[in-house]
Every structure is written in C-alpha cells, then in structure tokens.
Design goal:
CATH architecture of the domain at 10-67 and 300-478: Alpha-Beta Barrel
Helix content: 25-40%
Shape: globular
Radius of gyration: 25 Å
Low-confidence stretches: none
Strand content: 15-25%
CATH topology of the domain at 10-67 and 300-478: TIM Barrel
Bound molecules: xanthosine-5'-monophosphate
Number of helices: 18
C-alpha cells in the first residue's frame, strides 16, 4: 500500500481559543517581509491584470500593505505604473519633476496630466531654482509655444532649507498660503527636493502607510521569464521598485530558478520574491537561488484550475505550514498566495507561519482594481480572470504557465492561438466597495482572531496557535446554517453563492 500523506486546506482546521488579556484594538498586525519591507498590514495584492495596477498599489500601500503590479503589459507601461506609485505621495519629494525656463508652456500641461500634479519648480541648467509654475500662474490662459519663463512666478518665492521637517513645512506653507515648498541649498541655490501640501495631508490621513526609507509608498512588481524579462526587471528597478516578484505557476522549475539567480546577481540590492512553490524542497531551492521571500500556493486560487487540469497541487493550509517552517529555518519569509475567502483564512495562514497573505479575489471587485463595473440583473460586478485563463495568456501571461511557445507558434487560420491549455478561468465578482472597506473587514477579523488567542502581535499569534482539524460536519457547522434567507454581511458570503 502506498503511504500517502494527508494535506489540509483552510476549511479543514480551526484555531482553538486561549486565555487572553489582549483586546483586538490593542494588537499590532505589522509584519516584516524583508528588512526594507515593513508592512503595517500583512496583505499583498495579486500580480494579476484585473487586480493590481497603480490605483490598487497606492490604495493598498496607504492601508499598510503592498501591491504587486502585474506584468501583462508592455515594459514601459509597467515601469510607469511603478513610477506613479513611487511618486504618488511622500511627505518629501527627493526628485520632483521640474521644468526649464525655455520649455514651451504646453509641456507643463502635459506633465500636469501625466503626474496629476498642479505645478512644478523651474530650474536652470545647473539645477538652481529660478521660478515656480503652478495652475495659478496658468489659469488666465497661455499662448501655445511660449516659454515657461513668460508665466512662472519669480518674485517672492517661498522656499526652505534642507532639514526642514514635515511639520515645519506645513506651518510655512500655511503661513504663506502656498501649496508647494521647494527645498533649496542656501549656498548654491540648487533645488534638492520639495514638499507639497497635498502629500503632507495624505501622510496625516494614512498614518499606517507602507513606505520606504525616503517616505515613498512601497511598490512591488512582477517579472516573468520571457525573452525581455531582464530588460523588464531593469526598467522596474529604474522606476524604484522595492520588490521584484518572479511570477510563475511553478517556482521549483529549473528555468525559473536560474532566472531568479540571475536577477539576484544583477540587482543585489532589490528584494526578490520567488514562487510559487508548495513544498519545503521548493522553498529551499528558491532560497538557494536568491529568494528573500518565497511565495506559496499551487492551485488554491479562486480562478485556478491547475489542480484539476494537471492533477498537481497541495491544499493550501498544509503548503503554508510546511513552506513557512522551511522559510523560517533559512531566515527568509513566506507569503501565502491564493485561496483566502474570509478573514479567518488570513488568520489561519498567519498563525501557520506566513509573514503575509496575497489575495486576488477579495480585492478584484473594488473601486481600485482595473476594469469597469458591469451591471447584471441590476447588480454591480467586476470582471476577474486567472492569469492562466485563455484571455489573460493571450494578453501576455502565457510564460507564467510555460506556454509562451504555444502562444507564439500556433496561430490558426484566423490568427488565433489555439494550443494554449488554460489553468484558470475568468468570471464576474460582486462589487465590493473600496480597498479601504475590504481591508477594514480583513484587519477587523484578524484583530479579533488575535484577541481570541491572546496574541498581541503576529509573532505571538504564531507561538500561541493551536490548530485542530475539523470534519466536514464541523466545517458545515462553522458556516451559516439552517436559515432560508441570509442577509448579506460585508465580511461573509454563503459559500458557493458569492
Ligand atoms: P485568489 O484565491 O485570491 O488567488 O483569487 C489569487 C492567486 O491565484 C494565482 N493565480 C492562478 N493560479 N491559474 C492558477 O492556477 C490561474 O489562472 C491563476 N491566476 C492567478 C496567483 O498566484 C494569484 O495570486
């Protein structure tokens, strides 16, 4: 007889309550993914084209998490999204977009639209501040082709010296009724940075935002292993990406690991996440090839069909337990990717050792995910699709499933690729409001779970976790039962009825 081990999914287990003096509102849910990636919310958004672009990455980082920008787009488009996140808000801009006095004034309108900002410092060839042009200067009309110097404000510029704090900058801007405060070296007159009032307000509004050492929002981005992958990585690093995620359905594959090692060699200073794996051996291989963070999950995702199409995978709870343990032994962290349907699953993954959890489904129906709302039967939905679905692979993700050649070499008479073997589907998800609303519910559930276990932080949650297995009857009992009509709750949908 074959000795076949059993593997469990989130629904198979529960955490037992423990004596507790910890109140949910007092717990810390912060996590360290990597020494330069400190999150206040242990949540990543999936690198999927219906989940993470600029808006999602900004919204999630403001809540304390980390968005992973998908790669189903040209290199420049992805690099630009990363740049937009990094520029979106920081109390202090180290590298503000500037204009030259001789630039045509039309350029200021282009840049305003491109960066969604209301004005720019104007500098000379030596980088010295010579003026500032804002929409106040332009609103009375401009003549196309005229130089910026015709419109910029030169007299009475309000500036400050390096070392000015956020509070001092705010006071100075309020005192002088200006919205931008260029920081200028007093000896050379060179512009070294800028505060904007809008950003300072945001810093106050989102105190838990996940930021880099320079106060800019954290941003991650996916790379595949296609021909242009190194070039893509280079562009992303140039845009300031904080974490490169080697995105594959099978991270324990030779080609993926070799590429990861090449990335680590080339960009030693950028944190590297490699995946997906589902075994301790897979984790060790990733770490041997340079991974700082390992992503765990083969087939648990809501749109995944990998397990049924290929017969391969691992129920996610066991995968997380096994991989997180291996990761801890090697001093790296593990991210549990896919299959999270309720906040309780998040608690189980973190208690099982994951440093953070990646979600697609739970965020794909929000305002900040790419795509329009669609109305079906009077209800609002958003499209969600697996990166292994035919549509997504045609749009560029075939390499994630080792099918780039099938895509390139098999166009039928109508010019449509026909040999792709999908490992995912597409569908519709109910509209779920804003990212902030979803993360509030997830964090609320996590905090309560930690309260039940008497865990004041995530390390304590891991230590105090005692899991029991539940039977199918137990899982049925755990869900809503014996009601004919269930009114919707923001954090609960009846299984199979979402
Ligand atoms: P959830 O459950 O949050 O899962 O929707 C998101 C994760 O699913 C993975 N993913 C896929 N897996 N076929 C797969 O087997 C696919 O088409 C597919 N698309 C995404 C991915 O790891 C994501 O983070």
């Amino acid at each position: 007889m074959l000795d076949i081990p059993e593997a469990l999914s989130y629904d198979d287990v529960l955490l037992t309550p423990r004596d507790s003096a910890v109140l949910p509102r007092e717990v810390s849910v912060g996590t360290v993914l990597h020494e330069r990636l400190r999150l206040h919310l242990p949540l990543l958004s999936a690198a999927m084209d219906r989940v993470t672009e600029t808006e999602m990455a900004v919204a999630l980082a403001r809540q304390g998490g980390l968005g992973v920008i998908h790669k189903n787009c040209p290199i420049e488009a992805q690099a630009r999204m990363v740049e937009d996140v990094k520029r979106s808000e920081s109390g202090f801009l180290v590298d503000p977009v500037t204009l030259r006095p001789e630039d045509p004034v039309d350029r200021s309108f282009e840049l305003m639209a491109r960066y969604r900002v209301s004005g720019f410092p104007v500098v000379d060839d030596a980088g010295r501040l010579v003026g500032i042009v804002t929409n106040r200067d332009l609103r009375l009309g401009t003549r196309p082709g005229r130089p910026v110097s015709d419109y910029m404000t030169v007299e009475g510029l309000i500036t400050a010296a390096p070392g000015t704090t956020l509070e001092q900058a705010r006071d100075r801007m309020q005192e002088h009724r200006v919205e931008k405060l260029p920081i200028v070296d007093p000896d050379t007159g060179v512009l070294v940075g800028m505060f904007t009032f809008k950003d300072i307000e945001k810093v106050r509004k989102y105190p838990d935002a996940a930021k880099d050492a320079g106060g800019r929002l954290l941003c991650a981005a996916a790379v595949g292993v296609g021909d242009d992958a190194l070039e893509r990585a280079e562009a992303l690093v140039g845009s300031g990406v904080d974490l490169l995620a080697v995105d594959s359905a099978h991270g324990h594959a030779r080609g993926i690991l070799e590429f990861a090692a090449a990335l680590k060699h080339r960009f030693a200073d950028v944190a590297l996440m490699v995946g997906n794996v589902a075994t301790a051996d897979g984790v060790r291989a990733c770490v041997d090839h340079g991974a700082d963070v390992v992503k765990v999950g083969v087939g648990p995702g809501s749109i995944c069909t990998t397990r049924v199409v290929t017969g391969v995978g691992m129920p996610q709870f066991t995968a997380v337990l096994e991989c997180a343990q291996a990761a801890a032994e090697l001093d790296v962290t593990a991210v549990a990717d896919g299959g999270v349907r309720y906040s309780g699953d998040l608690v189980k993954a973190l208690a099982g050792g994951a440093a953070a959890v990646m979600v697609g489904n739970l965020l794909a129906g929000t305002d900040e995910s790419p795509g329009e709302l669609v109305l079906v039967g009077g209800r609002r939905y958003k499209e969600y699709r697996g990166m292994g679905s035919i549509d997504a692979m045609r749009a560029g993700s075939a390499d994630r499933y080792f099918q780039a050649e099938a895509l390139a070499g098999s166009a039928d008479e109508a010019g449509q690729p026909s040999k792709l073997v999908p490992e995912g589907v597409s569908g519709l998800l109910p509209y779920r409001g804003t990212v902030g609303e979803v993360t509030n519910q997830l964090v609320g559930g996590l905090r309560s779970g930690m309260g039940y276990l008497g865990a004041s932080d995530l390390a304590a949650l891991r230590e105090r976790a005692r899991f029991v297995r539940q039977t199918a009857a137990g899982a049925r009992e755990s869900h809503v039962h014996d009601l004919d009509v269930v009114h919707e709750a923001p954090n609960y949908q009846v299984p199979g009825n979402r």
